[in-house]
Amino acid sequence: MSIVKINVLTVPAEQREVLEQRFASRAGAVEGSDGFEWFELLRPLEGTDQYLVYTRWRSEEDFQNWMNGSMRAAHQGTAGGEGGGERPKPAASGSTLWSFEVVQQASPKREA
Strand (E) positions, the chain? Predict the structure, then answer.
């Protein structure tokens, strides 16, 4: 079964739009990674300032390969970025990574 990684990002109200724009501009950055299965950016509706970045992977090894490869390069500004320029201030003020193994799953039933 797959594994799920949820990055919990604490985002001040004034940085929400910045965070969402940064994720929108990275569209396609992870989708071609070996073992990648799903991505969602979840905006809080009430009672919290924490966004959830949900990704699902075929295996822990696939996730680690992405983390140590293209993700690390992108966050260091070496993967086709502008390079040499000043890095923008982070939109999140904190981050925690949760890991889960998928043990059960379901999808909608199809009508005959």
Answer: 3-10, 36-42, 50-57, 94-101
Contact 66, 18 (CB under 8 A): no
7-34 pLDDT tens trace: 999 999 999 999 999 999 887 788 999 9
User: Other C-beta atoms within 10 Å of 11: how many?
Assistant: 23
Q: Which two tokens stand for residue 31?
A: 């989708």
The sign one gets for the Cα dihedral 108, 106, 48, 66 is negative
Least trusted range by pLDDT, from 23-32, 43-52, 56-65, 80-89:
80-89
CA 25, CA 47: separation in Å to the nearest integer?
27
SS3 content of the chain, % helix, strand, coil (to 5): 25, 30, 45
Q: How far is CA 89 from the centre of its chain?
A: 18
Residues in the chain, total: 112
